[in-house]
Amino acid sequence: MKMKAAVLREPGRPRPYAESQPLTIEQLDLDGPAEGEILVEIAAAGLCHSDLSTIEGIRPRPLPAVLGHEAAGIVREVGPGVTALKPDDHVVMVFVMSCGTCPDCTGGRPNLCGSSIAAKAKGELVAGGRRLHSGGSDINHAAGISCFAEYAVVDQRSVVKVPAEVPLQDAALFGCAVITGVGAVLNTANVPEGASMAVFGLGGVGLNAVMAGALAGAGQVIAVDVHEDKLSLARELGATHAVNAASANAVEEIRDLTGGGVMHAFDMAGTVKALEAAYASLRTGGVLTSAGLAPADALFQLKPYEMVSRELRVQGSYMGSCSPAQDMPKYLEFYRQGRLPVDRLLSGTLGLDGINLGFDKLSDGEVVRQILKP
């Protein structure tokens, strides 16, 4: 079938992207689903910093490629061997498919499943090869999803079925921003009721972490960012305090607010500067959890003596340590109860022709989550 998609052929083009056009809107050929695959009509896709990093050239991927890894849509066709899904089902895409049989999956950590790593590194789907083509040449899949398009063919294990009554533009956020931010707080860090916590970086993931802090019953939820509008939104979503990260005394302010530092600090910005500030904000016995993906060659330095003598911990959180099939229904129930109002994070919608301008706004920090409606 023919469809339109946003294709990245050359990373590292200069800003503004609205002028340099790193993403070109092209008509592609899309093969039908192979064994174990489904065809999904994309209803909503979120613009995420992970995609921006690829456009910037910070996170290399096989090119040319159709980007996009956070989306929701409607199943239009199922391939051979697919029995759990059918046409017209509503689904949310997840960027780590779990095989269900490897040690990580059977050990309760399906977010770390490595069964699709080799295929994704080559820009292919797990069943082998590519379904995207242009003029006889293959186009690579990004993260096994490639949702900046009208349609996508994905492995059936790359989606979670969701109730049809959930608006798809809200559902899209659950595939990345929600499971990453909420999961980091509730799963990876397991923040206990009454604990103090600080969230550094208030994008879609960070604001979900703020809401998760409220869900966990944290005693203090301190939101940290350089944008005052995001700090104000964080307060509306459950933050008890807001600290502007641009202040030279930001860490001291956090320590003053908490009487010596927070028990849990979350880096959601993906920069070494944010990691350093989050680590410095910890009280004795505190835990730093990072879900922000810094550049692959970035280094974060700490003093081992201090880490041991103050019993500090540093840990990573990938995809919120989530089991999407188990955790997403719980988070959707929080959403239906009004306790996880992800719709408050939506900064507007755009079409394929506005996607480059959308990434300009994301890079400038003007927005939280823009939704692409192909």
* Structural shape: globular
Derived from helix and strand composition plus strand pairing, the structural class reads alpha/beta
What is the name of the CATH superfamily of the largest domain?
A: Medium-chain alcohol dehydrogenases, catalytic domain
Question: What's the CATH topology label of the largest domain?
Answer: Quinone Oxidoreductase, Chain A, domain 1
The domain tally reads 2
Distance between the termini: 16 Å
How many DSSP helices?
Answer: 13
Percent helix, as a range, is 25-40%
Uncertain segments of ≥5 residues (pLDDT<50)?
none
Look at the structure and give the mean pLDDT: 97
Assembly status: single chain
CATH class of the largest domain: Alpha Beta
What proportion of the residues form beta strands (DSSP E)?
Answer: 25-35%
Q: Characterize the biggest β-sheet.
A: 7 strands, mixed
Overview of the molecule:
With 374 residues, this protein is of the alpha/beta class. The chain has 2 domains: 2-175 and 341-372, Medium-chain alcohol dehydrogenases, catalytic domain (Quinone Oxidoreductase, Chain A, domain 1, Alpha-Beta Complex); 181-318, NAD(P)-binding Rossmann-like Domain (Rossmann fold), CATH 3.40.50.720. Helix content is 28%, strand content 26%. The chain is built from 13 helices and 18 strands. The chain has helices at residues 17-20, 49-56, 103-106, 117-121, 168-171, 177-188, 204-216, 228-236, 250-258, 272-280, 304-309, 324-336, 355-364; strands at 2-8, 23-30, 37-46, 65-66, 71-78, 90-93, 132-134, 137-141, 151-155, 159-161, 196-200, 220-225, 241-244, 262-267, 282-290, 313-316, 346-350, 369-372. The strands form 3 sheets. Strands 3, 5, 6, 9, 10, 17 and 18 form a 7-stranded mixed β-sheet that branches. Strand 15 (282-290), helix 11 (304-309) and strand 16 form a beta-alpha-beta unit. Helix 6 runs parallel beside helix 7 and helix 6 (177-188) crosses helix 12. The radius of gyration is 20 Å and the shape is globular. The protein starts with a strand and ends with a strand. The mean pLDDT is 97.
